[in-house]
Design a protein that fits this description.
Elements lengths: L9 E2 L8 E11 L5 E11 L9 E4 L4 E7 L2 E2 L3 E4 L2 E4 L5 E10 L9 E5 L2 E5 L19 E10 L5 E4 L2 E7 L4 E12 L6 E4 L2 E8 L5 E8 L8 H18 L7 E7 L6 E2 L4 E5 L12 H16 L8 E2 L5 H21 L4 H23 L11 E2 L8 H34 L3 E2 L1 H12 L8 H4 L5 E9 L4 E9 L5 H4 L8 E8 L21 E5 L3 E6 L7 E4 L8 E3 L4 H10 L3 H24 L8 H12 L5 H7 L5 H6 L6 H18 L1 H10 L10 H17 L6 H13 L3 H13 L6 H14 L4 H12 L9 H9 L9 H14 L1 H4 L5 H14 L3 H8 L10 H17 L3 H11 L1
Parallel strand pairs: 2-12, 18-19, 19-21, 22-24, 25-31
Antiparallel strand pairs: 1-23, 2-3, 3-9, 4-8, 5-6, 5-9, 7-8, 10-11, 12-15, 13-16, 14-15, 17-18, 20-21, 25-26, 26-29, 27-28, 27-30
Length: about 900
């Protein structure tokens, strides 16, 4: 458990190199669930680049100290304390042997060495290694590792660790051993071991340089039939990294292991990636199209870390985005390539839209709250709280801007120089920026502000067209408007913002672009470099008054302010050649309408939907020239959470009323079109998880969800009941069940109940599917007679619910608190009382998971007064009772 003492604030400015270095580590494990003995032999020397220290201070938590030796002799000048060991009066260079023990069975934090379903697993990022043995547990201490695992052969027939297997054999008393060697220097957070009853899907491949590699996906025996997609995703990742960046797999083997008890999605331990089962296991009956896509992306992400995170790692945890932002960008590019190849811009745009939706809904909200921080934070109390959307998703956008500025070839040159300079080192975000700058002959000093300033920038755009001179002037002004105090404190100056723009003529065609001073036009999209608080760019030879297409492909993580009329937005939705901005125009149009209706709903005024929105959505729905996947995204309304955040005072009930009104209106006005779309996008035959087939299923099931909103949803109930019964894949089955639950207030009540019961019985032995069962119920709308909170509380008593399993807690508790805003923010405060109970319950078991749940109320000041008061009371309750620094940091920042 995290300590309960007054938390220490760790500051980036206080960084100092470690006083000692550890060149080599030899670990020996005698594995037993309740008492695992660990002997670590460390080759230690003083760091010539650091201030001398008389004693060696090693980190350690919840460990039993057994003994120490220096250079083979027993050493008594060792003081054990709550946070580690102090080894006094050490020589300049020596071999230190430490023996200790830990209790994996009792480790519910899932950090360090723990037991899940009788098997042993580790999670060491960020500071879990200190729960295994005493160490300089910081990312800038890089060592080679040799690891020997010993265990009962019946209980643990499989023994895995990082690197290459160099020796294995039997021992007396039914035990056996395996010895692993990782020849690459790595920090302790990349250490891993796995031991237990597992089976593997294996493949052998040959890399581009002709070397043979063994790939393995390890799972529990009953899950072996769900590993093919993960293996294929791994092979695709290896091939893509070879083609795109010239990076090869460097070890003899690469292993993925799936575990159901895991705090994160996956972990990139060198050569032995440990994954949450959610991002490994898939077959058509148990996994949706979204699951298949997420597995491909996460497998890619963790594999890509082999170079961007492992071979070159972080100097300190403030540089976390050095590896995470860069690797998220790499996995986004990989997923875009897998969805349609590098040349299919429409398919790539669909992936881009999905990524930006997440960024806007989650990271922009983070920027506006008390946890706002730069991509490279300046301080923290608990590092686990800084695995954030800002570090990951905004960090990826910062990396993407290098590619926008320099093009794909220039970005590759920067990556090549980065690896040439820093392979095998622990470095900083500045080192990456300098490699990009030097490789492309650019001064990127101003670009550093993207790493050091928090908040979401706003770019205000005004245009002026001079018909006589055929000149169009575009003035861009940048600033932050009113952000959170946490963000405002970091904002020091103008950013370098790559701002992509196009001009569209009255006929809907892109105009050729020539800036003043240029001899000829060049393309129809230009990236303007905004470096001042305000700049004007003038285009010449513009024959007709154009409509600007702004921030094409979302070229920078900013909010664009431009006063488009509804007609102009509809025109962009119909004609913009940039797929992202086409989608963006529709979202702006819908957001404008929804916010206006929410304002009326808040004051109980009558509601009426604007015909312009219906007509615009109808045109998209009927436009067969657009891909089904694009139409699905374009026809989704902005989420209730996103809409509430756009209000001066968030009112979830009013937003829900408005959004449901519009969904019903679109369902009724376009009923015949939805029915046609449903039939036109059926996917008969065997299930295929291809992007094309997934696009058809997505549009078909979106049509079904709209039809379920009708006041008389007989068609939806008929279609959903038939689809549920005939489904040969989880995508269609789950969508049909969701539609029946939506229609349950009308004619679908009995069918929904029967389908829900059937779903559980059918998949009772599939934990990931039962997670979906919990989530569907946690996110249902509820009624005045039975609010969803009652269903959630009842489900917590269900035999299948287990608070200690993070996936199960997320499927029910997190789904309700984060994905059902209208019910969670109930006027009676019942949702907040439930939230407080669960944060405190999780805090006693797993502080990392508890802290993530605690963040649900961090924007409490943005809500209406009554909700605000109730949220504050819940926050104060948690602040008074929370034990971990993980949770206390969150709630104390929220209340400050």
């Amino acid at each position: 458990m995290s300590d309960t003492a007054t938390p220490t604030v760790i500051r980036r400015e206080d960084y100092a190199p470690p006083a000692f270095l550890i060149d080599a580590v030899d670990l020996e494990f005698d594995l037993a669930p309740e008492h695992t003995v660990v002997k670590s032999t460390l080759r230690v020397r003083r760091n010539p680049a650091a201030k001398p220290a008389p004693h060696l201070e090693l980190m350690g938590e919840q460990l039993e100290f057994i003994g120490a030796q220096i250079d083979g002799n027993s050493y008594e000048n060792v003081r054990a304390h709550e946070h580690g060991l102090t080894i006094e009066n050490v020589p300049d260079a020596f071999t230190l042997a430490l023996t200790g023990a830990c209790n994996p069975e009792a480790n519910t934090t899932l950090s360090g060495l723990y037991v899940s379903s009788g098997n042993f697993f580790t999670q060491c990022e960020a500071e879990g290694f200190r729960r295994i043995t005493w160490f300089l547990d910081r990312p800038d201490v890089m060592s080679t590792y040799t690891v020997t695992l010993r265990a009962d052969k019946t209980a643990c027939p499989v023994l895995l660790s990082n690197g290459n297997l160099i020796e294995a054999g039997d021992l007396p008393d039914g035990r056996h051993y395996a010895k692993w060697e990782d020849p690459f220097r790595k920090p302790s957070y990349l250490f891993a071991l796995v031991a237990g009853k597992l089976v593997a899907l294996e493949e052998r491949i040959t890399t581009s340089s002709g070397k043979e590699k063994l790939l393995q996906v390890w799972v529990e025996p009953n899950d072996l039939d769900k590993t093919r997609h993960a293996m294929d995703s791994l092979i695709h990742s290896i091939r893509w990294d070879e083609r795109r960046f010239g990076l090869e797999l460097d070890l003899d083997r690469f292993m993925i292991v799936a575990v159901s008890d895991f705090n994160m999605g996956a972990m990139e331990n060198k050569g032995l990636n440990i994954f949450n089962t959610k991002y490994v296991l898939a077959n058509p009956e148990t996994a949706t199209d979204v699951d298949f896509a997420n597995i491909e992306a996460v497998v890619g992400h963790e594999y890509f870390h082999n170079w961007t995170g492992n071979r070159v790692t972080c100097r300190d945890w403030f540089q976390l985005s050095l590896k995470e932002g860069l690797t998220v960008f790499r996995d986004q590019e990989f997923s875009a390539a897998m969805s349609g190849g590098d040349e299919n811009e429409a398919a790539r745009a669909t992936k881009r839209i999905e990524d930006v939706r997440v960024l806007r809904q989650m990271q922009f909200a983070e920027d506006a709250g008390p946890m706002a921080h730069p991509v490279r934070p300046e301080s923290y109390v608990e590092i686990n709280n800084f695995y954030t959307m800002t570090v990951y998703e905004k960090g990826a956008e910062v990396v993407r801007m290098y590619q926008t500025l320099f093009g794909r070839d220039g970005f590759r040159k920067g990556m090549d120089l980065y690896f040439q300079r820093h392979d095998g080192q622990a470095v900083t975000c500045d080192d990456f920026r300098r490699a990009m700058a030097d490789a492309n002959g650019r001064d990127l000093a101003q670009f550093e502000r993207w790493y050091s300033q928090a908040g979401t920038p706003r770019v205000t755009v005004t245009t002026h067209y001079d018909a006589a001179a055929k000149r169009c002037s575009v003035t861009l002004s940048q600033g932050y408007a009113n952000g959170s105090p946490a963000a405002r404190d970091t904002q020091k100056g103008a950013l370098l913002i790559p701002f992509a723009i196009g001009l569209i003529g009255p006929d809907g065609a892109d105009l050729p672009l020539r800036l003043e001073g240029e001899s000829s036009s060049s393309g129809t999209t230009r990236v303007l470099e905004l470096t001042e608080t305000q700049q004007t760019f003038t285009f010449v030879d513009v024959a007709h008054k154009p409509l600007p297409s702004l921030l094409r492909n979302f070229s920078a993580p900013v909010i664009v302010e431009y006063d488009y009329s509804n007609d102009e937005l509809a025109f962009l939705l119909a004609h913009d050649s940039d797929p992202f901005n086409r989608w963006e125009a529709g979202q702006r149009l819908a957001t404008r309408e929804l916010l206006a209706l929410a304002a009326r709903a808040a004051t109980r005024q009558p509601l009426a939907i604007n015909d312009a929105l219906i007509n615009a959505f109808g045109r998209v729905l009927n436009d067969a020239s657009l891909s089904p996947s694009f139409r699905e995204l374009a026809l989704m309304l902005p989420s209730e959470t996103y809409l509430a955040e756009q209000m001066a005072e968030s009112n979830p009930a009013a937003v829900h009323t408005a959004r449901q009104f519009v969904r019903k209106g679109l369902a009724a006005a376009l009923k015949s079109e939805w029915l046609v779309a449903y039939d036109a996008n059926l996917t008969p035959g065997a299930y295929e998880p291809t992007p094309e087939a997934a696009g058809h299923r997505g549009l078909k099931n979106l049509a079904l969800s709209y039809l379920s909103e009708l006041d008389a949803p007989a068609d939806a109930v008929r279609l959903a009941t038939a689809q549920y019964s005939a489904a040969n894949n989880m995508t269609d089955r789950a969508a049909a069940l969701s539609a029946l639950m939506n229609a349950a207030s009308g004619a679908g009540g009995d069918q929904a109940k029967q389908a829900l019961e059937d779903f559980y019985v059918r998949f009772e032995k599939e934990p990931l599917v039962i997670d979906k069962w919990f989530s569907l119920q946690a996110t249902q709308r509820g009624t005045a007679q039975r609010p969803t909170i009652e269903t959630v509380r009842a489900l917590m008593r269900h035999p299948a619910f287990n608070l200690k399993n993070p996936n199960r807690a997320r499927s029910l508790i997190f789904s309700f608190c984060a994905a059902n805003p209208a019910q969670f923010h109930a006027a009676d405060g019942s949702g907040y009382a439930f939230w407080a109970e669960q944060v405190l319950a999780l805090d006693a078991i797993n502080p990392q998971v508890a802290a993530r749940l605690a963040r649900n109320l961090e924007l409490w000041r943005r809500f209406t007064p009554a909700l605000r008061d109730a949220m504050r009371a819940a926050l104060e309750q948690v602040a008074a009772q929370a034990k971990s620094r993980d949770v206390r940091e969150i709630v104390e920042k929220a209340l400050a």
